[in-house]
Amino acid sequence: MFAGSVYAQTPQKVYETKLALRDLYVHHIYWVRNLVIATKFGDKKFAEIADKKAVENARALGEAIVPFYGKEAGDKLFNLFAGHYNAIKDYLNAKSDKEKQTAVDKLNKNAEEIATFLSSANPNLPKDAVLSLLKTHGGHHIAQIDAVKSGDFEREAQVWEAMVKHIYTISDA
Q1: Are 117 and 84 in contact (CB under 8 A)?
Q2: What three-state secondary structure class fits 72?
């Protein structure tokens, strides 16, 4: 999809974009993690900041593709990332197993929508591969939330390490 663009002809720009995307994706999991921990400990001010930064990050992720695919695509990606984040928050705030399952269903539906969008924008991204990456990512969020809610911070640290490695795979894809 980058063929013919200025970015395909300048390896430095491609490299800089790759690094920028990695930072944006890591910031996504960083701010969600902070929201989860702030919520666990009832720190509303910290939770508000983490929430605000997570939304700003979703906007930045959408804007990152504007030079390649245009503003409409950037706005669409922002809305899809916002849906991802909202499903995570729904799971975090769920009070029952039924509410948790509803949030998981929402997260999986959103993963399907993101995979469809990204694979249609870039023919080098097979939808099934992207969907698998996104479902694993959603699973990391769920495992992290469950570990923090139960006070199992050793488990949360393990999930965090796996999550960071996996987010680089998503970003590089």
Answers
A1: no
A2: helix
Tokens of 57: 């990050």
Question: What is the model's pLDDT at position 11?
Answer: 81
d(CA 4, CA 51): 38
What separation in angstroms does the CA of 70 have from each of 30, 56, 78, 130? 27, 19, 13, 21
Give one word for 126, left, alpha or beta, with left for phi > 0 and alpha for psi -120 to 50.
Answer: beta
Alpha carbon 155 to its chain centroid, in Å, reads: 20
Alpha carbons within 13 angstroms on the beta-carbon side of residue 50 total: 20
DSSP 5: S
Query: CA quadruple 149, 154, 156, 159: dihedral positive or negative?
Result: negative
CA distance 21 to 13: 12
**What are the angstrom distances between the C-alpha of 87 and each of 29, 34, 90, 117, 129?**
14, 16, 5, 18, 21
Q: What are the tens digits of pLDDT across the range 1-18?
A: 434 444 455 788 778 888
Nearest residue to 47 via CA among 93, 82, 83, 100: 93
| Tokens 């245009």 sit on residue | 70
Q: Which residue has the tokens 């993101």?
A: 114
Taking residue 100's Cβ as centre, other Cβ atoms within 10 Å add up to: 18
